[in-house]
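Notes from hallway chat w/ T.B., transcribed later so I don't forget. T.B. wanted the structure written out for a chain they're using in a teaching module, and asked if we could keep both sequence and structure tokens in one place. Agreed to drop them here.
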Amino acid sequence: MDEAAHRQWHKQFLPTTLTAAGEPRLLRSYRFIFNGFAARLTDAELEAVAKKLGFLRSFPDRVRELLTTHTPKFLGLSRDAGVWQDTSYGKGVVIGVIDTGINGGHPSVDNHGIASPPAKWKGSCQGSVRCNHKLVGAKSFLDGGNYDPSDHDGHGTHTATTAAGNFVVTYKACDGHNCNDSAILRAMDAAVDDGVDVMSISIGAGVAHRHWRVHRRVQAYRCRGFGGQRRTAGGVCQK
């Protein structure tokens, strides 16, 4: 089923195309990491949707927080031995960073001496950010028609430019330090479609949730079915 048909199917779950305020109900439609959608619904409308055939579960669209930490030592990564050396330090891997976007002019995304990205790669750059052999993709999934993946915070550039020996693609899902679940999931869906090898997500929940309630973990598990790996922050936050 193509993207247009998928969206049309999801619209059939909704009571109307527009809300009483004239806003589109269907916000996002997900195809790869899981089968579902994000929509504007009142509690009463959600109860009606929940009775329809095919409905499994709903989640509120929560706001997450940006996180950062230093992990090589914690993960036991050494330049002289072990998995890091055995895999040529990740050379040739496409890393998708879901964060605040990227500064396309940063020296760390200079493509001097870097080969072309793998033939499997399908991503592209949007807005004012230009792709090269290092920065192979940049997209924004913020609401309100903001499709410029430029980083105005610095956190996304910091996390993306850590991947020194790899191809990098950035998916902007955070506006400042606020990251909505619906945007994060749409970015994950796009990353799978584009063909990333690893997703890097330095974003946390801020509060503890039961494992089965945190649907992003379910989608992360689904990502592995497409051959990808996902790494997320372990809870280090700065106040």
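Follow-up for T.B.: The helical segments are 3-11, 43-50, 83-86, 155-160, 181-194, 215-223. Might be a good example for the class.
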